[in-house]
Amino acid sequence: MERATGLNPVATQMNKIRTGWPHRPSHSGRTPRDDSERCRFDLEWDDRDLFPDVLYPDVDFLLRRTNEVTLQTVDALPGELILDIGCGRGIDGVEMAQKGATVIGLEPSPVMLGYAKRYLSENGAGMSLVRGIGENVPFRTGTMDKVACKGALDHFPQPDAVIKQMASILKPEGRAMIAVANFDSLGFRLARLIWRLRKTFGFKAPDMRMPWEVPEDHTYRFDYTLLNKLTKEHLEVESASGVSLLFGLPWWGLFLAKIPKNMSLAILNFLDKIARHFPQISDVVVMKCKAKGNRRNVSKIPEI
User: Fold this and answer.
1) Is residue 166 scored above 90 in pLDDT?
2) Is residue 154 assigned to a domain?
3) What are the φ/ψ torsions at residue 180 (nearest 5 degrees)?
4) Could you read off the pLDDT of 1-14 as tens digits, one per residue?
């Protein structure tokens, strides 16, 4: 079922985002990049061209492990009411619904909602779809057992407002899960260093976006520090873990593809175990949070 009508506050907020410019928090105290033209919220977002035709072992592992850790962290239980913010194609929501939870997928893009409808019909899962944005969710305070937001927070113009909404709609004993790409990962740090050295020695950079550069469909450059700071404004962080290590390192995926598959998987699993304990340098950061004990004392979000 898709409910896309009668949500006047959501429609109003969407119109504001279409024409307005969102604020960006500074990254680690530095001035944000001058990307104002890229800050507009894409309400027609489509992930068809997001992934390459051929997935190297590191990319395949990262995507698979992120999905696994997401579902493990949410830990959907029968009878729970769960909201998936930025649900995309509804893949995670279907997994949670199949465990007996009542799942609602919130997605602003009608293109992605179309994909989600087809995926739901193919899998026979009972998941509801709602067109809306994370900054203004159409649900009452304290109604959700759990809220999940995987890989979507850095697509919203105001992620701090999204986290505030997550905290608001959680039941007092509820839990929230947030997962984002870490653009200050060890792999990206090393990659930037290697590329600077290559440039120093006269090597020409390829005419393409590199993995450590923020994609056009992202509105924020997240890392562990920024996610932790914004989350703690509204939620209490119970745990933070990392997924995968060294994604984005030049020639890493090519190397893994050339060695035996069992050896490649062993290396990736070993690095993933390290990343689990060091989210600051991992490829993806996953946080599990709970509502603050006294909602009335939640600090007002600062101007950014």
Assistant:
1) yes
2) yes
3) -140, 155
4) 433 333 333 333 33
Residue 269 — φ and ψ, nearest 5°? -65, -40
The pLDDT > 90 percentage for the chain reads 68
Question: Which structural domain, as residue segments, surrounds residue 161?
Answer: 2-22+37-291
Give a yes or no: residue 170 inside a domain: yes
The answer to whether residue 89 is domain-embedded is yes
- Please check whether residue 125 lies inside any domain of the structure: yes
Counted domains in the chain: 1
Helices 159-169, 224-232: inter-axial angle, 10-degree rounding: 50
CATH number of 126's domain = 3.40.50.150
How many other C-beta atoms can be found within 10 angstroms of the C-beta atom of residue 198?
13
Cβ(301)–Cβ(233) under 8 Å?
A: yes
Which two structure tokens, joined as six digits, stand for 285? Answer: 């950061």
Q: Which single residue is written with the structure tokens 């986290």? A: 163
Tokens of 207: 């005419």
For residues 47 and 125, what is the distance between their CA atoms, to the nearest angstrom?
22
pLDDT at 40: 53
For residues 33 and 213, what is the distance between their CA atoms, to the nearest angstrom? 12
pTM of the full structure: 0.82
Helix axes 261-277, 57-74, angle to 10 degrees: 40
Average pLDDT over residues 184-192: 97
What value does the mean pLDDT of the chain take? 84
Distance of CA 74 to the CA centre of its chain: 14
Torsion of CA 47, 52, 53, 55, to 10 degrees: -120
Q: 135 CB contacts (<8 Å, ≥6 apart)?
A: 13, 17, 156, 157, 158, 161, 162, 165
